[in-house]
Amino acid sequence: MSLTSEELNYLIWRYLQESGHEVSALSMQEETRVLEFDEKYKEHIPIGTLVNFVQKGILYTESELLVRYDGNVMPVDPSHYEKDFNLVQALEVDKQRFPELVARGRFALKHEEEKEPDIQIKDEGIGKDSDDSFIKTLQCLYTFPAGYVSQWNPKFGTVFACGHRDSQASIIYFEEFEDKWTIKDTYSLVHPNVSEKQNEVTCLEWSPNGESLLTGVENGELRLWSMEGKLQNILSHHKAPVVCIKWNIDQTHVLTCDVENVTIVWNALSGTALQHFNFREPGSTESLGVDITWIDQDKFAIPGLHGSILIFNIGVSKPIGKLLGHTQTLTTLSYNSENQLLLSASDDYTLRIWRGGNINPSNTFYGHTQSITSAQWINEDTIISTSMDGSISVWSIKFSSPIATATVDGLPNFTGSLSPDKLKFATGTMDGEVTVYDIKKLLNSLKGHGMSANTVSNSISIPVIGDYQSNKEGSYVVHIAWSQDSKRLSVSYSLGDVAMISLV
């Protein structure tokens, strides 16, 4: 329902007449077109309509807070209705959700104008000339041959790896001078073609010390390379495209999985396959999941049947734990070693938090309406996620609720990536747009609000730093990777080259 300013004027004029304020009603009659509306609507609008609208608005504003994120109504003491269901409380709630516009300059009231010199703007380190309404257009520094994956070296900040569609990957060394980067060396990593067909690189991952790179291709072959592009080992047991590679913390073992739900544990030193898991039922086309994670140097979590999560130890054939809750394909598994919690996300639209020793989730987050495409830890209490429904949500474990949201023109988010310093978050959409969000400013804003229950009930918007748009029509974002200094990111597209984008 919408209400024009002239219609509102008419309701106010009617209220003044009904209340006996004839002089005020006459003054309003002289300055507005209320008499024209009176001829049209007099017979259709009952006495007390304005008061009725205001009361319903108060009821709606307060009732909205009584409904939890899962649709259930919170229990409320009857005294709450007398205390909080009033105009002042409703205006306070609305003010927190939609901050009022501040009149400045010639539009400011006199008493506000006199106080203005006393206002001090707090510098949050974003930049003295920054403006929250300004969204920076990010610049492309370099492009590389088309590919689906790329990753920056975790220890050597100017070393970059990129997978291509012609059976090759590249290791690129940059030189940095006065914040400008130039390409110093490039090493080609070649996988053999299969039956005259190009063997696209589908996955790659640097070792934690940054001295080795493992690449996986469409036919399932894995190759281990040195930083200088020298072949160190070939791992050949997968028969389908590899979608995920994870090193354990001491770099002695590697966990890999492919599109046919085969998961393998490798000895990284010898290239030997130590364990082989395939839980898919015969004849089934169900995808169990596209992510895996280490919990410690010997323990790991992998997708099981029907949305389950299986916990294994190296060398043990049977799972030591089975986590039940999800009902569809797992899209994220991420263990936080600081709070010792496991995060999972799924095509069933939910995120779940798991504590050690408990087979049931300690937190379940509802809110997304389509598949979740990424979920990552910001800190011990806070998680950020993206979904095919076009939304980005930030969740609090403490409050078990969303605390901030954003939507990119309603377009599906195909991927999301948190920067290494955990102060920025980049998303990629179906139309090829990359948007970078300011997590630092968001956390400062949440801290300023005090993270009260009322703040949680009214999640705030996530500030935007800048965006980048692909100029190739029909190309969508498939992968985003951050440089170690969190100042640059590489973007892989379904069509066209890999773009290296700068935030500085």
Automatic annotation (TrEMBL):
Entry keyword set: Nucleus, Repeat, WD repeat
Gene Ontology CC entries for this record: Set3 complex
Alphabetical list of SMART domains matching this protein: LisH, WD40
GO biological process: negative regulation of meiotic nuclear division; positive regulation of stress-activated MAPK cascade; regulation of transcription by RNA polymerase II
Keyword Kinase set for record: no
WD repeat windows: 194-228, 235-276, 323-354, 365-405
Subcellular location: Nucleus
Molecular function per GO: transcription corepressor activity
Short name of one Pfam family: LisH
Top-level taxon of the source organism: Eukaryota
Domain (Anaphase-promoting complex subunit 4-like WD40): residue spans on this chain: 194-248
Listed SUPFAM superfamilies: WD40 repeat-like
InterPro entries named among the record's database cross-references: Apc4-like_WD40_dom (IPR024977), Ebi-like (IPR045183), LisH (IPR006594), WD40/YVTN_repeat-like_dom_sf (IPR015943), WD40_repeat_dom_sf (IPR036322), WD40_rpt (IPR001680)
Name under which the protein is recorded: Anaphase-promoting complex subunit 4-like WD40 domain-containing protein
Taxonomic lineage from the root: Eukaryota, Fungi, Dikarya, Ascomycota, Saccharomycotina
